[in-house]
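User: I'm curious whether this sequence folds into something compact or stays loose and floppy. Could you predict its structure so I can see for myself?
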Amino acid sequence: CQRTTQACEEVDECAVDVDPCAESSSAAVTNGGPAQYCKNTVGSYECASCSTACAGGCAGSAPADCVSGCTEGYQPRPDAAGSVGCEDIDECKAGHACDRQPNGGASVCVNTAGGVHCAACDNSCSVEAGCTDPGKANCIACKDGFEKQAGSGCVNTDECKACHRASVFFVFFV
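Assistant: Here's the prediction. I'll summarize afterward.
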């Protein structure tokens, strides 16, 4: 607290010439961790971690706060005026292809923050058509033995029920 005439005034410890977090940030990066930035708190400060999107320093914890480059899986924001700022690369939109699952099932590309992975489509999805996201509600088409129902996705066809209706119909008209 910096004493003025009658009251104390909050001092921003981060707004000094020497960054109080510079040494701990350097040590964190040397040990494979993210860089750190100074975060002012009431009466003190804390050294907080930069986003893993930041290749160097940052001014805050979000990818948009990166100031010196982006890590793999991120790119500079096209609208970043004056600072670097980073945003996630959507590898799925960029054409990342997924192979079929080991059991022969379809896969779908799932973008993650700074990366990508392939997830198995539900086993009710047609292998040829695939899915838009994991889960039976996201099948593009259903495989044989399943039918698409609104709100439920692909559900198992009850062949016995259909067969029973046909036999009752046949007996009634014979």
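Summary: The chain has a mean pLDDT of 81. The beta strands are 2-3, 8-9, 36-41, 44-49, 74-76, 86-88, 107-112, 115-120, 146-149, 153-156.
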